[in-house]
Amino acid sequence: MNIIDNIKGASIKRSVDSGTEEQRRAVQAIIAEVKKAGDDALHRLTEKFDGVHLESLAVTRDEIEDAFSGLDPELITIIEEAACNIRDFHEKQKRPSWFETKADGTMLGQKMTPLDSVGVYVPGGTAAYPSSVLMNVLPAKVAGVERIVMVSPPGKDGKIPAGVLVAAEIAGVKEIYKVGGAQAVAALAYGTESIASVDKITGPGNIYVALAKREVFGDVDIDMIAGPSEIVILADGHQHADEIAADLLSQAEHDVLASAVLVTDSSELAEKVSREVEEQLSSLPREGIARRSIEEYGTIYVVDSMEEGVEVVNDLAPEHLEILTAHPFETMASIRHAGAIFLGRYSSEPVGDYFAGPNHVLPTNGTARFSSPLNVDEFMKKTSIISYSEAALKEHGDKIAKLARLEGLEAHARAVEIRFKGEK
């Protein structure tokens, strides 16, 4: 790994292109085709991009039952336990509507209403991501969303992986369709004969999925445009180099654009971790991906003190932050920008990815400076409630009219004054 002791301009921002012009045009063409031809377009595009001809886009009850019978019962139990942890965590995020009244009869409040429908995109094809199902579906269920639609590209066998279907059933999804890519996003946004449109689309995907979400935003809501995964580890010199290396590689194996960064006040630890990363790389099944990630985006920053290390972390604003210091809770108090923080030796990042309960859909590429993990609020609307009594409007009506006229909006002023026409 690249070891740097000049900390100025520390960054994990990658020059991740938001899509070439050719890719954007391709996505726009796919969206237009789905809007025009509906299910026929989905069938054609699935055959073109996924190499499979489907008789039906919808996942059947038999396919779900086959998924349960084909999956190790122990794995089903683990998925159920993870779902329970995730559901319990997100239940604590739920906020009630509230109302307050004043002596003059004024009543103000905020009404919380779940979205009517949400579409969840789950990546697939050559991989299976049941954790992505749980993390996207369960906050929506906790929020009270009535209709949740899941889409995922089929494999060459025309099926969605068993783990994904089992997770969807455990999470309570009733509509599942075997369609992926930009065409799936278009179907969720605009509807087809089989798939009714939704109000919001969440979930990760490749560049074509990300571009499609960007294109349909405004017609529907989206969660975020997620970039490649990243981890920053803040460690003092008393930590275990082999464990840190393993944690760094746990993110590097995601994607060649993934970023793994160590910030430490120990040159000795920096050297040990660098050697450990190289040693562990050779035995990884996804060595090619992880090696390229480490070579291009893997960095070790050596700082003069932990205080300086905290400053570097706040500049980086990482998606995942592990704090491995003598007093991690004290260190955490100084962290302002991070998507998720993992404290202590036994809180390795995969604990949060799969099982602990907090959401693993996190802001990337420095956006933790201003955004948050996927949460229950993402699936709810807040409506302001205003009720003025006659006495309250009499007391404040003149002030409201004067503010309206300050902005040059005479009709606004008259709309208040007309209620007391003829009164002194």
* Beta-strand proportion: 15-25%
Count of DSSP-assigned helices = 16
Terminal CA distance = 80 Å
Largest sheet: 6 strands, parallel
CATH superfamily of the largest domain: Nitrogenase molybdenum iron protein domain
What letter string, H or E per element, gives the SSE order? EHHHHEEEHEHEHEHEEHEHHEHEHEHEHH
Total strand segments: 14
Report the CATH C-level class of the largest domain: Alpha Beta
Number of domains: 3
Whole-angstrom Rg: 26 Å
Write down the overall mean pLDDT: 94
GO cellular component, one term: cytosol
Cofactor: Zn(2+)
Function: Catalyzes the sequential NAD-dependent oxidations of L-histidinol to L-histidinaldehyde and then to L-histidine.
GO biological process, one term: L-histidine biosynthetic process
